[in-house]
Amino acid sequence: MKKLLYQIITVIFLISLFLNAAYGKEDWKLIKDKNDIKVYERKIPDLELKEYKGVGIVNARLEIVGELLGDPSSIIDWLANCTFSKTIHMRGDKRIIYNIFGLPWPVKSRDCVLEVDIIMNYRKGRIDATMRGLREEETFLFVPQQGDNLRVTNYRGEFILQAIDKKTTEVTFGFIFDPAGSLPIALSQMFMDDNPFNTLSAIREEVKKPKWIERGNNSKEKSKFEKYFFDREPN
Question: Are the C-beta atoms of 124 and 96 separated by less than 8 Å?
Answer without folding.
Answer: no
